[in-house]
């Protein structure tokens, strides 16, 4: 059965990455999730040709970094990655209240969901709404896991926001996410900052905020362990 599941996921990922470029990444001029929904819905619908999703990765760009064929074929079950770069927790909450969002939730029913959100609430200076927004998302995905914001290079954004202020917002958001999702919390810090000095290790991030491929693969293995070891 495991081999069959692996084959189904391999076939699904291969077909999806062959076809996804034919589907518009975005429709319309807004920045709501509804404008990015065609690929989200298409990927989920396609997964049902192979038994439906067992693992779903959703959220912002640190979820989207998993959207590589070389990463997604490593899963032993059919997995979807529907992260949308630049999105916030409140935007996903709003999306799930739309008709399309409710359809997406229906399609996600068989999957164990891993949410990677919050970082853009800090970068967009919207940390103050994280408690209410995370509560809304959790109500839509009550059995989901949350992946906390990893250590990032806060100095990189100093032209936009004081580093100390940005780090304070990140800490506030991570605290709120821990409280809302406990005990289903994944802290990527040990993979990004092994010496716990608050600064990402060299090579842990591919740029100031996003996981390097090495960390992505390590997290993929951990996500699969949590999803399937039940």
In short:
By secondary structure, the protein is of the alpha/beta class. It has eleven helices and five strands, in the order ααβααβααβααβαβαα.
Outline the structure in words:
This protein is of the alpha/beta class and 230 residues long. It has one domain: SGNH hydrolase (Rossmann fold), CATH 3.40.50. It contains 11 helices and 5 strands. Strands 2-1-3-4-5 form a 5-stranded parallel β-sheet, with helices on both faces.
Layout of strands and helices, then pairs:
Layout: H1 2-19, H2 37-47, E1 55-59, H3 61-64, H4 69-72, E2 79-81, H5 89-96, H6 99-107, E3 112-116, H7 119-123, H8 130-140, E4 145-147, H9 163-181, E5 185-186, H10 189-192, H11 213-228
Parallel strand pairs: 1-2, 1-3, 3-4, 4-5
Beginning-to-end CA distance, first to last residue: 16 Å
Percentage of residues in DSSP E strands = 5-15%
Structural category is alpha/beta
Written as H for each helix and E for each strand, in order along the chain, the element string is HHEHHEHHEHHEHEHH
Task: Give the overall average pLDDT.
Answer: 95
- The strand count comes to 5
What's the arrangement of strands in the largest beta sheet? Answer: 2-1-3-4-5
According to CATH, the fold-level topology is Rossmann fold
What gross morphology would you assign? Answer: globular
Could you give me the name of the CATH homologous superfamily? SGNH hydrolase
CATH hierarchy, class: Alpha Beta
Helix proportion range: 40-55%
Helix segment tally = 11
**Radius of gyration, whole Å:** 17 Å
The domain tally reads 1
């Amino acid at each position: 059965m495991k081999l069959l599941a692996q084959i189904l996921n391999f076939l699904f990922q291969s077909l999806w990455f062959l076809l996804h470029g034919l589907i518009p990444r975005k429709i319309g001029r807004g920045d709501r999730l509804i404008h990015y929904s065609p690929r989200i819905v298409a990927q989920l619908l396609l997964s049902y040709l192979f038994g439906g999703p067992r693992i779903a990765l959703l959220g912002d760009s640190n979820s989207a970094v998993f959207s590589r064929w070389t990463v997604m074929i490593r899963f032993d079950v059919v997995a979807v990655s529907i992260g949308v770069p630049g999105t916030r927790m409140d935007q996903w909450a709003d999306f799930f209240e739309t008709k399309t969002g409710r359809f997406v939730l229906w399609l996600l029913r068989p999957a164990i969901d891993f949410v990677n959100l919050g970082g853009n609430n800090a970068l967009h200076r919207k940390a103050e709404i994280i408690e209410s927004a995370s509560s809304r998302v959790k109500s839509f995905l009550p059995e989901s896991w949350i992946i906390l914001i990893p250590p990032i290079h806060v100095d990189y954004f100093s032209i936009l926001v004081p580093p100390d202020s940005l780090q304070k917002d990140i800490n506030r958001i991570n605290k709120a996410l821990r409280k809302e999702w406990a005990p289903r919390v994944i802290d990527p810090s040990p993979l990004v900052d092994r010496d716990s000095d608050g600064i990402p290790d060299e090579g842990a991030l591919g740029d100031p905020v996003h996981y390097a491929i090495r960390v992505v693969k390590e997290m993929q293995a951990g996500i699969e362990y949590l999803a399937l070891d039940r």
